Amino acid sequence: MTAKLTTVRRGALTTxxxxxxxxxxxxxxxxxxxxxxxxxxxANRLLGNDPGAAVLETTLTGCALRPDRDITAVVGxxxxxxxxxxxxxxxxxxxRVPAGAVLDVGAVTAGVRSYVAFAGGVAAEPVLxxxxxxxxxxxxxxxxxxxxxxxVGAPARPVALPVAAPWPAPPAExxxxxxxxPRADWFSPAALRTLTSATYRVSPHSNxxxxxxxxxxxxxxxxxxxxxxxxxxxxxxxxxxxxxxxxLHDHPTTGGYPVVAVVAEPALAAVAQAAAGTPVRFTLG
Length: 285
What we know:
The protein is mostly beta strands.
């Protein structure tokens, strides 16, 4: 039987995310999906869901919801306090939430994004094959607001409690393997050395579209404008201020700033959990 959850506290930014909207970049539609996909998949597996079932992705301050029926949930990703009806509950393992009780996902104690999965998955209407919220194009459900109702599908099977699982800690430092980008020749040799030798830091202006960095500027060898061209997930684009920006899941599918490098996709889960001020190093590999 399905359940409905009323949003009591939306938090700073809470969106519906799944494994993403693949295969539509030629239409100008980004992939979207959970930024920390391993955390989403693990939370779903603990509930017996399909690994790519839709979940809620919270940002920094969590959220709170009240179900109209008994449900089972997992809160994972960035560690945070969890309460059910005001009483402490497990983080990173399935918990029962009785009808009418408030599941409160608190502010992160490390990292950035927590994932709230429910047995049966979030049952938002799919758009182009995905339930994900896309902040750039506006596709998918709107970010949660207080009073919004979230529907949850019927669980595929009963969930055994408790279940322990290994959750990786948010990164104290990002070490990101990169390969040269298609426009590396637009930068001076000194700039390319700086990229792989300097330490940058995560900017507080980062979001689901891109992780912005603070640190030394990269000097161009070529000036002028670059016609817009296709952009891939993990592209390290360099805007006029010279500081690298790593494109994440809601990134635009085209762009007119040169791409100096590309981050390997498996490293992007750690990027999703890197809080403002986290050191960032790029390594060739």
